[in-house]
């Protein structure tokens, strides 16, 4: 006979707890983000207070040891329904069941729903949650149970989505009305780009399937604001309300204020290098490919000549065997050889492999852009003249040229730079515009602060680009350090220009701190002699000798009131006015200037030829 742990021997039996009605219920609110109302409560079971079996985990561990899990589930549901009926609220009740308990519930549905009616709880207010512990070996045989319960009026939810048992397979086959996202994906979603992307994927699938999403485990305001602004419908967690035997009818005050706040989330995807221009290389390869016929290994040189004569623009021809490239014949090299006396007569009927390059450069269609760029730095430059073969899963797709490779890599890198600056990895122009548009559309008041470095060009000319890059990275670090990552968006426009979209109320103090920190720290990039001199000697734009002080930071700010946020203003308008404020700031000793949005816009309309220093 197997021995039980001392804790299990000391604990009362689950069947005794059920018989003695020694279980109690607590309820945790599920909140609708649109209006902040409580949509329903999840019923949770508790054992005798102050005992080893008070927590659900201990209760179900004991039940598993006794083989009475389903009996405990049914007793827990009955207890929750009784207590819920006494609350006399009209919202929904979410109940947890394993797959086995759901089958039994369906088999005894008449008795179950009669009990509900007697307690005054209509079946339409019940949401049955399939718990994460439930592995379902035969989903097809489980579907009728779900259908029977739905026919009686109950709804069905998939709990803890993203765990091993709550998979997309179940989502597709069970078609839940509600999907509860596991707390793992919600905790710290405000600062975790991968969790953010995972939840976005769930959101797209929910929209396609018609399911309503509930974000579980919301414990911090920042996470709540992110899931709210993503468009997730509902949430649950300690920040919204803790489990209680007598839950309040309204959401917690701090959560209600957060839901009503006008500031919008800074999505974590915008705080890293967002290269949406296909870093996998697929888009670049597609642009490069020349769809050209290939020849088999047993083709003759006359076949090659006929193909080149028929297709005068074809720069090369691939030789394939079972659709896999084995060689490449360059047009110019082949035609130059054939122009020699008697070569056609001597070699025309010989195999084409005679003049072929049997080790051509091969680019797989999925090759990353970075790997393609390495080809450009490779000592073997045959592909620039010969071209190369493009394959997909090893099968011949087409040809590419050295020119097309250079163009494709350049285009992708330029496109990538629009999304993220390659030096600082801060968001580039497209994410900046996107965030301004989000701010405007949500009528969120904010301050757009354009930061620029004074005397940066003379420093760059004197000390070189490598040291100049270090100054730019230092500026990015200083600005990032003064931002609240959940409220303030920092982007790198390019060069020594940065844009901060402050929603923090103490934005002015943050901007002042950035200027002070940068101005002091930037001096360490100068040599000892220049530090003693207070700057460097150089030439102005006309070539005249001039002295330039230390590199300093200037920040021009424009305040955008919520009432300004209508269709008349665009992200370009905001950025342009902030740039005007920056030009003024560069002339101020403090390095910090603010203009009203409407004032700046009028000035821009009346004087559009001002230059950026």
UniProtKB/TrEMBL annotation:
Lineage top rank: taxon: Bacteria
InterPro entries membership: CBS_dom (IPR000644), CBS_dom_sf (IPR046342), Cyclic-di-GMP_PDE-like (IPR050706), EAL_dom (IPR001633), EAL_sf (IPR035919), GGDEF_dom (IPR000160), Nucleotide_cyclase (IPR029787), Rev_trsase/Diguanyl_cyclase (IPR043128)
Signal peptide region: none
Boundaries of every GGDEF domain copy: 444-599
Designated name of the protein: Diguanylate cyclase/phosphodiesterase
EAL domain ranges (all copies): 7-257
Entry's Gene Ontology molecular function annotations: cyclic-guanylate-specific phosphodiesterase activity
Keywords, comma-separated and alphabetical: CBS domain
SMART domains documented for this protein: EAL, GGDEF
CBS domain: residues covered: 288-345
Pfam families cross-referenced by the UniProt entry: EAL, GGDEF
